[in-house]
Design goal:
Blueprint lengths: L1 H22 L2 E2 L4 E3 L2 E3 L1 E6 L9 H10 L4 E5 L2 H4 L14 H10 L3 E7 L28 H20 L10 E6 L4 H7 L1 H16 L6 E4 L9 E6 L15 E6 L10 E2 L3 H13 L4 E8 L33 H19 L5 E4 L4 E9 L2 E8 L6 E5 L2 E5 L3 E5 L7 E2 L7 E9 L4 E5 L10 E4 L4 H5 L5 E10 L4 H4 L3 E8 L3 E6 L2 E7 L7 E8 L3 E10 L17 E10 L2 E4 L4 E6 L2 H4 L14 E2 L10 E7 L8 E4 L5 E6 L2 E7 L24 E2 L8 E4 L9 E7 L9 E15 L16 E5 L6 E10 L18 H9 L4 E5 L16 E8 L1
Parallel strand pairs: 4-5, 4-12, 5-6, 6-7, 7-8, 8-9, 9-10, 10-12
Antiparallel strand pairs: 1-2, 2-3, 11-37, 13-14, 14-15, 15-18, 16-17, 18-19, 20-40, 21-32, 21-33, 22-31, 23-28, 23-31, 24-27, 24-29, 25-26, 25-28, 29-30, 33-39, 34-38, 34-40, 35-36, 35-39, 40-44, 41-43, 42-44
Helix pairs in contact: 6-7, 8-9
Length: about 850
């Protein structure tokens, strides 16, 4: 009996060992190998702290419905360890909950631990306290940094292991990243940079996660680390070893927005073309950065000058709503790719030229299985090519996908899915109260010193604001008095912005730009005989998030600070005594919190001031009815920060108008760059600010604004976001036909309004040769006169409707021998 027991135990042990080996994630030259099977994986980046836990399930579900296999996210060190050894894995930083929700939806996870992330995130994700560790130098062969980095990385890995979240444990994590886009910084550091990179790789592998580790944009990543590509295009990327697969960890779906910068939109036709191009070249993992961009709540936006919105023109917008047609067109691409997967993972393609800028990529999997990509790389001209003895029409700058090497199921340039337009609808009226924050005085300073202090060292990153205050004595015999007291005040700053007050009067604001935050101010000011107070409110607008030598980055008034018109000529103020105050008195009194409301006397009614600097405003409102996302319109305010029920929505800055020129139209054909398709120039960078529904209670929500330079608070409003217009434009051009000339598949147009909405009106309908975009369609020379009546009858009053693109529906062919399409614009309400 004892022998049988040991035999059973040995059998169970062997089974467990075999199961562990089977579950281990490996890779070869083609792809990740999961449970012994090569996979073509489509991933989307969703950053858990840029949304709320209440939003996560729907975001992940819509990612799955969009055809994703994987959710990829950074891990944000400064959010998880705000002070040394004080860890935060709760609320928006509940990483375990986020990963488990991804698993529940049946998706994998790619975990970018970093722990440096860049990501347009404050300080690149590094904790500011790290800057003050003695002897530290960031991201190089430096023991204090390596010790801190290893400790946090191990903390994250151990937490994932303890919850059984790596794939060999039965969890969803199939891949992890160490460091992030390090090669450029490594070049600056030289040999210590190379040593650090190799150390980071060895440290990560030694953590024994059972999944591969990657380094993005690191062409010298040592084995077994996989080096990966980031960019708008990665079809030319080649791994650094022939036995490693080609991974694209950041396929940029759009671009971030900065204060003073335009909004960038990347056409989905070009994004789909880039992804199909990468996969036809042998790539096997592609991740959209971003799939949902989200919001830089609080002071998490990097800098300087990254906006609170991190929408990124992603397939799911900042508010969590599906962006059409981007989401739907990519979904169709993913479906086509999955049909090709058995052939794609089986070997390398056979590539043939079909013309000057046309190629075919053919993958064979044996047993008659075959998949093909037909590419037209020409940015100007459409083409008809011969492939397998058949003619195929390929629009310019596009790729057609043939999962059986015969029938085209998808073309990157042919968008047949619905286009939707979102609109914010103001609801209700806000009644305001105010509290005037006084200009800081010399006596208010909690710190005094001879000379000018650097801002980040002084604030330790705990506030955006530092007051620099000094006194200037002016005798009645000074030359400037004879000139009406006029003196030229000159200030030099390391950025990012500052407000100038002389004797309590606001004189103006000076600010730099993201690429050059250092700035200089020079202007005449009026001084009086006796004691004058110069108060400079210096501000950081997000700390540097990219580049080497983070620990040496500075901000604040660095001098010289001078005044002209004195007997000695120009008087330097830089080395005299200055007083410093961190932040505002209102912050210390918790005016942004419900608990702090009774600490000051608020002004009500008609006495509430408009366009006044340094003013706190508050209003109480009820949550809008329904479940639509909620936003805050701050378009007529100046600069400041907003809170809802004590939660910081983020910074706003509408007085910083955009600079530069918008693009003249947006043609998806040809190489994309952030300046190619820009909108809203000569305007403010962001009008609406996301208020998560979960931050609201049904009644009496507290909205607080800290306005720095003056704005019209009477124009501020709450709004709800929903689809108000849906459009389709689908062509019947170049249909596939059988040997009797009949069309094999008639394309359809489909319209769908949001939950709780119906199609209330048809604004435009034309079957023929319509042109234009959603919102600006125009009839062509060819137009079926029954178009509007037919669509109106078929669709109005329904949430969804579907129509074939066929002349029979419209009572006959309005122009035989002409390729036709149907364009519809409908109103949802």
């Amino acid at each position: 009996m004892e022998g049988a027991w040991w035999q059973l135990l040995l059998l169970l042990s062997a089974f467990s060992l075999a199961h562990l080996v089977e579950c281990k994630v490996t890779y070869d030259h083609k792809a990740l190998v999961i449970n012994g099977q090569r996979r073509i994986l489509v991933s989307g980046e969703i950053h858990y702290p840029r949304s709320t836990p209440e939003m996560w399930p729907k975001l992940i579900r819509n990612a799955r419905k969009g055809g994703l296999d994987v959710i990829q996210t950074y891990v944000f060190w400064n959010g998880h360890e705000p002070s040394p050894g004080n860890y935060n894995f709760e609320g928006r930083f509940d990483l375990v909950k986020f990963v488990k929700l991804v698993q529940q939806e049946g998706l994998y996870v790619s975990l970018r631990i970093g722990p440096y992330v860049s990501a347009e995130w404050n300080f690149g994700g590094l904790p500011v306290w790290l800057k003050f560790v003695p002897g530290i130098r960031f991201r190089t062969d430096n023991e204090p940094f390596k010790n801190a980095m290893q400790k946090f990385t191990k903390k994250v890995v151990d937490q994932m292991k303890s919850e059984g979240l790596f794939e060999p444990q039965g969890g969803p994590i199939i891949m992890a990243q160490i460091e992030n886009e390090y090669k450029g910084t490594q070049t600056v550091y030289g040999h210590p940079g190379i040593a650090y990179m190799n150390w980071a790789a060895q440290m990560a592998v030694a953590l024994d996660t059972g999944v591969p580790w990657i380094m993005c944009k690191q062409d010298d990543a040592p084995d077994p680390i996989i080096n990966t590509c980031n960019g708008f295009y990665c079809d030319k990327f080649v791994p650094n070893k022939p036995y490693k697969p080609a991974f694209w960890t950041e396929a940029w779906s759009g671009w971030f927005t900065e204060y003073g910068g335009a909004t960038t939109q990347r056409p989905v036709e070009d994004l789909a073309f880039a992804v199909a191009n990468f996969l036809q070249e042998g790539g096997s993992f592609v991740n959209y950065y971003m799939y949902h961009g989200g919001t830089n709540f609080g002071r998490t936006a990097g800098g300087p000058f990254i906006t609170t919105s991190y929408d990124y023109d992603a397939p799911i917008d900042e508010y969590g709503l599906i962006r059409k047609p981007k989401w739907g067109h990519l979904k169709a691409l993913h479906k086509a790719i999955k049909l090709c997967e058995p052939a794609l993972v089986s070997g390398d393609p056979v590539v043939n030229s079909l013309g000057n800028n046309q190629k075919s990529y053919v993958y064979s999997a044996g047993a008659g299985k075959c998949a093909a990509f037909l590419e037209n790389f020409d940015a100007n001209s459409d083409a008809t090519v011969i492939f397998n003895n058949k003619n195929y029409y390929i629009p310019a700058w596009s790729i057609s996908i043939l999962p059986d090497c015969r029938s085209v199921v998808f073309n990157t340039a042919k968008v047949s899915v619905q286009r939707s337009q979102m609109n914010m609808t103001p609801v209700g009226r806000l009644v305001w109260e105010s509290f005037k924050e006084n200009v800081a005085t010399y006596e208010d300073g909690s710190i005094t010193d001879m000379g000018l202090l650097e801002q980040i060292n002084t604030t330790r990153g705990n506030t955006d604001y530092l007051w620099y205050i000094t006194r200037v004595e002016v005798g009645d015999d000074e030359p400037l008095i004879k000139n009406g007291g006029i003196s030229n005040l000159s200030i030099q700053s390391a950025g990012h912005a500052f407000h100038i007050f002389v004797n309590g009067e606001y004189l103006g604001t000076q600010y730099g730009k993201r690429e050059s935050p250092r700035l200089r101010y020079s202007s005449d000011v009026r001084l009086r005989v006796g004691t004058n107070t110069i108060a400079l409110l210096s501000m950081t607008v997000g700390l540097q998030y990219i580049g080497p030598n983070f620990e040496s980055r500075i901000a604040g008034i660095i001098g010289p600070v001078t005044l002209s018109g004195f007997k000695e000529g120009t008087r330097s103020l830089s080395r005299q005594k200055w007083s410093y105050q961190l932040g505002f008195k209102g912050q210390s009194k918790d005016l942004h919190m419900t608990s702090g409301q009774s600490s000051v006397q608020w002004v009500k009614g008609a006495a509430v001031p408009q366009r006044q600097p340094l003013t706190w405003y508050k209003a109480v409102f009820d949550a809008p009815d329904g479940q639509e996302p909620v936003g805050l319109d701050l378009s007529m305010m100046g600069k400041g920060e907003a809170w809802i029920n004590g939660q910081s929505i983020g910074r706003y800055w509408h007085s910083f108008l955009m600079h530069g020129n918008c693009s003249n139209g947006c043609n998806y054909r040809g190489q994309f760059r952030p300046t190619k398709c820009t909108t809203d120039c000569s305007h403010f960078s962001q009008q609406w600010y996301h208020i998560p529904r979960s931050w609201l209670q049904p009644r009496e929500n507290l909205l607080v604004l800290l306005e720095e330079i003056g704005g019209d608070v009477s124009t501020v409003s709450i709004g709800t976001r929903a689809i108000d217009t849906v459009c389709v434009h689908v062509s019947e051009s170049h249909p596939q036909r059988n040997n009797k000339g009949r069309q094999l598949q008639i394309p359809k147009v489909r319209l769908k309004c949001g939950t709780g909405q119906k199609i209330s009106a048809i604004k435009f309908a034309s079957y023929g040769t319509p042109s234009g975009e959603c919102g600006s369609f125009q009839k062509g020379v060819c137009h079926a006169r029954t178009s509007f009546a037919v669509v109106n009858k078929k669709c109005v009053g329904l949430r969804t409707c579907s129509l074939p693109v066929s002349s029979e529906l419209f009572g006959g062919d309005p122009c035989p021998q002409v390729q036709k399409s149907i364009a519809i614009q409908a109103v949802c309400s």
